[in-house]
Amino acid sequence: MSQNSLILYGYWRSSASWRVRWALEHKGIDYEYVAVNLLKGEHRAPANMARNPSGLVPSLQLEDGKTYLSQSMAILNFLEEAYPAGARLFPQDPIFKAQVIGLCEIINADTAPLQKPLVFKKHSASEEEGTKWAQHWIREGLSAFDRASAPLRGAFSFGNTSTAADMLLVPQIYNALRYNLDVANEFPALNEIYKESFKLEACQKSSPEAQKDAVP
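The structure corresponding to this sequence follows.
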């Protein structure tokens, strides 16, 4: 690994980390992956807080070795602008780009924050109630994404080419399956996108189970 490579700090099962891993693989950008174990509280350690003021993952260390970016959507935008060669994350047409970003934000802003363990633990100490909470908000988010993407999608969320919208949708569906939502029956069109995405090498290589810190 080159001394000047990008370094991604993340966690194998973090949806936001998966988004960035997939984007890096999609664009063919060389990077090093450094695991931050959320279960051991490493995200709250001073070193990670310095990289990511929110005490979360992912964080991307840039090639100067000094600059860190956090928040997955900001990182995806940076990768698109800083590495224009290769596959795109967003369409070039401004309207189409806005539509893809809109799909991303249904997951990023409206869905994912409400299913974080820290959020539903505040709602209830009961694991059963926490699961119901997560299921409700995931179902709401996928329903919105399904409606919004219906006039736009082909084999993928936006047409027949993978975009950032899929990089947010697929990790969310992965979480939905973890919470026992019947995605195939409730959201058949989105389930087809999920299956189609896993045919892509970039999705496979960036998936949680493919990471060095994955736990069986």
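Strands lie at 6-10, 31-35, 59-61, 68-70.
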